[in-house]
Amino acid sequence: MKYYIKLSLILLVFCAVASGILAYVNSLTEPVIRDRKAKEEIATRSELIPEADFTEAKFADGSLYYIATSTATKDTLGYTFIAAQNGYSGKVQTMVGVDNNLQVIKIKVIDQSETPGLGANCTGDAFQAQFAGLGEADMLVDKDGGKIKSLSGATITTRTIANSIAAQIAALKSARGGR
Fold first, then answer.
1. Residue 59: closest CA among 87, 75, 39, 79
2. Burial zone of 158 (CB within 10 Å; 0-12 exposed, 13-18 middle, 19+ buried)
3. Which residues share a beta bridge with 111?
4. What is the DSSP letter of 116?
5. Residue 179 pLDDT > 70, yes or no?
6. Residue 130 above 90 pLDDT?
7. β-pairing verdict for 76-86 and 91-99
8. pTM of the predicted model, to two decimals?
9. N or C terminus: fewer CB in 10 A for the chain?
10. 112 to each of 90, 118, 120, 179, how far by Cα in Å?
């Protein structure tokens, strides 16, 4: 019996030391990861709506969107936001740039964990380009009678992206007073 208690205590010490080391490493890397992610979001916003300054605003649910204004004329060029919903394998996050008429300028999938070779193809330029010029009502997949060609074998991922964008455009319309 003493032998098993001794082994249990040794295992406990090893686990405690390993947990402490992992917690320490996490405390060192977490700020770096957060800063890198913030810089990537800034770069992506600038890619979606070039030559713009971005001002942070909040939806009613507390999530953020950004108002893009021209660096030269200070006119509003559009808005950017992150649309996110659960797809087939996990949450799919898409950053979207829309113009003043709430028509998509460009999208970029910024985080996904979909099936490699199927849903993960949502990060491809050809897939993302088909959203340009579409509005809230146009966010339908071809299998539902819409214009968005679904990824082969990954209709759920395509619907997830389209539905999340439509929901965020509706929220933006509401935040702008229904216009």
1. 79
2. buried
3. 93
4. T
5. no
6. yes
7. antiparallel
8. 0.82
9. N
10. 7, 12, 7, 31
